[in-house]
Amino acid sequence: MAAERALRAFWPVWTIIFLTVAGFAFGVSAQLSPTALWAGLAGVAVLLAVTIARGVMRFRLPSREEALERLDRTLPGRPISALLDHPAIGADDPAAQSVWAAHLRRMELRAGAARAPAPDLRLSRQDPFALRYVAATALAMALLFGTIGRVGEVGEAVSLGAGPAVASGPSWEGWVEPPVYTGLPSLYLNEILADAFETPEGSRITFRSYGEPGAITLSTDVGPMPTEAADAYAQSVTVERSGTFTVTGPMGRSWEISVTPDAAPAVALDGEVEGEPPGQMQFAFTATDDYGVVSGTATIRLDPQAADRRYGLAVEPEPREALVLDLPMPFRGSRSEFTEVLLEDLSEHPFANLPVSLTLTVTDEAGQIGTVSYDIPRLPGRRFFDPLANALIEMRRDILWNRENAPRAAQVLRALTWNPEPDLDEGVYLQIRTAIRRLESGVGSISTETRDQVAEILWNAAMELEVGDLDDALERLRRAQERLSEAMQQGASDEEIAQLMQELREAMDDYMQQLAENARPGEDNPDQGGERMEMSMNDLEEMMRRIEELMREGRMAEAQEMLDALQQMLENMEMVQGGEGGDGPQTPGQQAMEGLQDTLRDQQELSDDAFRELQDRLNPNRPQSGQQPGQQGQQGQQPGQQQGQQGQPGQQPGPPGQQQGEGETGPGGGGPEGLPEGQGEGGENGEGMTLAERQEALRRLLEEQQRRLPGAGTEAGDEALRQLDRAGRAMEEAEGLLERGNIAGALDAQSEALEALREGMTELGRALAQEQMGQEPGQGQAEGNMAPDRPLQDPLGRQAGNSGSFGSEEAMADREEAFRRSRELLEELRRRSAEQERPEVELDYLRRLLDQF
């Protein structure tokens, strides 16, 4: 109780004392004039006197009775008051006295268990603004960051005469401030009692003197002498080397200062420069510095002397700027020592797959640089397993090495396209021919812009050959299998094999999805009699795992046999939906997508016909399948003929010296570009329309489809409209070129229209998916000839409804059984999603299911 009363009475006293001490510790006395300092001290003294007097008046020592009352209030039944009390009546009654005695015994027991209560030291009612906490915080900051010894200087700073010099004589003080990036604290020279100390290089010593000018001077050889006059009150020195710092005059001192040098940063590779399929480069590096690395770069330069200087690399390479990449820095934590990984896709860079020198450079805060260089035999880049794609990439490398290789590259590309394979895509063929024309357009040598354009064309053609057209799932599946077979034969690395296996899985998933989307409604079909083999997705995945296991064991022949069997099964696979009524009525989005698919197919057929007619022009004597040579250009086909019998795109386009599709004027020309009248209608269809008329009809059909396109207002829907507009403009351009007989130019425009149509359909599908958010595509059961009575189901057994979404419309008779089944399904989903060895597409599907639960 005495502590409580003393605290409440005298808390302003120690609050004022704490604030005053903190102010003096931070050098307030040095900033005030003697008059202001005297006034401040007088004010503090008055406040202290008032608060002490007020505290003495309020403070009163607690009495014994007050202590007993305070203790009694903490006990149940107030036993102390009962022990001090006596009965008012019944003093002569033995029974009353007996009861009173028993009551006193119980109160004695309670009083014996009494403990002194804890003091109540809360001052929130006396100090509502928490000034005591402000004072305590100020004192703590003074103890941590201030100088308590400077409180004693208050007496020296106060004088009754002309100033400090008269009362106490000259004085000085100094600070040593290390560079900020070191994170080291400042040193107060007046408190350094030792004769020597260490400080980092670049530290700044600030010296300040008080009193008569020139009474205190300094001398040092740790750095250049301060530019201020010797009798200046404030001077500063930057520490550059070890030496002596001496203060001459009253309270003079001298120190030996040892400079801690700032070490240069260092960096080194942590392992090897590796490739991350399909075409990324990655390497780990470790950087160190005594105070921390600020930034770093990786510089890659071509090393022509280490290259295999044959064929296109026999000539000297053209000068090319080094490739500079920023090294990743840690976002948090210390940068004095760390390890990071740089991952970049350099597959399209001219240095890809060539020997290079790698220089790692790091810089610290002081501007010091650490560097190290390595010779890399091959800069990781994308590898192409398709033979034609590999040849295109080699020609691309040669022209990027030196433009003198352009004639040789054009000659090799002409040889590649002289008699192409029958299944060569027309778009790839036209890209290669375009590259040939541009390579041969230069006189002497091609320009830098032409070289870069040809390199881009060859890269796109090679990628299309290697990866394939993603819109055709079956073709992509075949390409993935062919690339995997080629990689096994060429002895590809484990990482590349794993990447190709992943691509094969993705292609198989796309193919299965396409089968599910085109599945036939279940119906009685007499052709489905006989034996059939049913397979599930788990069976296919088990085959994939077995193939991968055989390749890891080096049993490539067995793996190839199983891969061939898998390919045959997938190509013969059929998926059938069960139920009555099939998929039901189509939505507007499905109708629009189906219409665009028909337009894309018709445009592709028109391009094929134009390509065949171009071949016929370049080689008039080429025999035709199903018609006589003299029948070219007549009014359409005979009833028994098929459109695809007019020629194949893989047949030779003509002699190497002849440019493709230029439509040169020949003798006797009455038709476009000098062709005889009636020539150029060899691409007519069965309805007697010319190629230009068919192109016009397709363009008008596309315009009609655009007006009914759903998804307007969304980002994906607007992008689909823009792509279809681009396709319409390309069709209009192709129409005009066909009318003028320039079939080669029309094929380029038709290729652009096909590309725009595919991108528009992709964006339309994205817009439709956004409108039907929450509906997941089903995963059907796959089989050789799947039984028609088996409905399309997802992994949870839900059937597909008319809208294409999965769900269950069956009534649940027993709700408890349904709840139990739901819990079991949820636990199974969680168990499967925790198995990280499952394919990523399956894990992603399981996570989406869990998100909805």
UniProtKB/TrEMBL annotation:
<feature type="region of interest" description="Disordered">
    <location>
        <begin position="617"/>
        <end position="728"/>
    </location>
</feature>
<keyword id="KW-0472">Membrane</keyword>
<keyword id="KW-0812">Transmembrane</keyword>
<feature type="transmembrane region" description="Helical">
    <location>
        <begin position="130"/>
        <end position="149"/>
    </location>
</feature>
<keyword id="KW-1133">Transmembrane helix</keyword>
<feature type="region of interest" description="Disordered">
    <location>
        <begin position="768"/>
        <end position="817"/>
    </location>
</feature>
<feature type="transmembrane region" description="Helical">
    <location>
        <begin position="9"/>
        <end position="30"/>
    </location>
</feature>
<feature type="compositionally biased region" description="Low complexity">
    <location>
        <begin position="623"/>
        <end position="662"/>
    </location>
</feature>
<feature type="coiled-coil region">
    <location>
        <begin position="460"/>
        <end position="576"/>
    </location>
</feature>
<dbReference type="Pfam" id="PF13779">
    <property type="entry name" value="DUF4175"/>
</dbReference>
<feature type="transmembrane region" description="Helical">
    <location>
        <begin position="36"/>
        <end position="56"/>
    </location>
</feature>
<feature type="compositionally biased region" description="Basic and acidic residues">
    <location>
        <begin position="693"/>
        <end position="707"/>
    </location>
</feature>
<feature type="compositionally biased region" description="Basic and acidic residues">
    <location>
        <begin position="719"/>
        <end position="728"/>
    </location>
</feature>
<feature type="compositionally biased region" description="Gly residues">
    <location>
        <begin position="663"/>
        <end position="686"/>
    </location>
</feature>
<keyword id="KW-0175">Coiled coil</keyword>
<dbReference type="InterPro" id="IPR012683">
    <property type="entry name" value="CHP02302_TM"/>
</dbReference>
<protein>
    <submittedName>
        <fullName>DUF4175 domain-containing protein</fullName>
    </submittedName>
</protein>
<feature type="compositionally biased region" description="Low complexity">
    <location>
        <begin position="770"/>
        <end position="784"/>
    </location>
</feature>
